Model the fold of this input.
Amino acid sequence: MSINRRHFVQATAAGAAAISWPVLAQSRSIKLGFVSPQTGPLAPFGEADRWVIAGITEAFKGGLDVGSGRRLNVQVVVKDSQSNPNRAGEVANDLILKDRVDLMLVSSTPETTNPVSDACELNEVPCISTVAPWQPWFFGRKGDPAKGFNWTYHFFWGLEDVIAVFTNLWNSVPTNKKVGGLFPNDGDGNAWGDPKLGFPPVLSKMGYTLTDPGRYQNLTQTFASHIAAFKRDNTEIITGVVIPPDMKTFLTQARQQALRPKVISVGKALLFPGAVEALGELGDGLSTEVWWTPSHPYKSSINGLSARQVADRYEADTKKQWTQPIGFSHALFEVAVDVLKRTQDPSKRESLRAALAATNVNTLVGPVKFGGQGPFKNVSKTPLVGGQWVKGRSTPYELVVVNNETAKDIPVGGQLKLMS
Done:
């Protein structure tokens, strides 16, 4: 990991020392497996992972005191899903069967979280996942609301939250309430466009008319049929859940074919500064859901750093603009550390699972509590607000929170403006 870790490591190590208990006998090592998309079309989700893990690994150098009265050596074994669900399942099995990890961490989209979680459920390995709406994570894995899962736990927001955020954005500006849907044929797209659980029934109840031309394949070369349908129905709002390459293809072709929506609120593709910057002038005014920013009023349970301090250190170390997954990648390890500190016997997976199920910890992304802060015992929901990309002063674009009706403790920095 050729990363400048000085600022983050110093703060993390100091925080880790501050929360340690009295040092007892050094015990066996415990292994954490970590899977995320670090290459491929979903790579922007994993862009900050190596930086976060570098700091966490440094903090673990002296070991971690756990509830059993022992100090554990902690190793983090990192695997790249390569943005491929089959690959995600393969590396999860490698981590379980070859590396023999004690606790699995996984992040970023159902294509990553679901196959890894399934492997853990099958092999009875405790697993913490994030950065995928809870519906495709739970129902996409055929979860039974009456039973839940035994070994896999998830924290993030749900479709009901992103629908609320997007409609709050749209209600704040004048439109004809006609919406065009961009829903790919993947875990997220099928969940967002689901006629019973996704956007369609809720938008209908709220007086919006949705045009859904059907599913398309990721990395498609043309959106001609979608654009034609949106123009035919005079849609003034475009929404969906799109990977970054497809967002650029759609926006370019929409411009060429004279589709001029007033609002474009899209998940996934518009989360990252690099992806929006790559759009050039097409990126100005695009809106998206916001899970984490430097202005979020939360602190790390590991080192006490605020969201602003973590973002500043990331930018100082990497010379890159902060990105939303930083907060959740860090929070994954916060939950893991909290679980380990409360586990009575880390050598037993059942003991780790019991501690995981009882999690109630305040993290960099807000509170995470299983069995009381979500629709099911395995799910804890985190706050979500709405943001818009505007021309930046020190960077090409800045993500500004423009609507916080769903989470009033997160400050706004402006109001939604119509696309120029």
About this structure: Residues 1-27 have pLDDT under 50 and may be disordered. The radius of gyration is 21 Å. The CA atoms of residues 257 and 393 lie 31 Å apart. The longest strand covers residues 26-36.
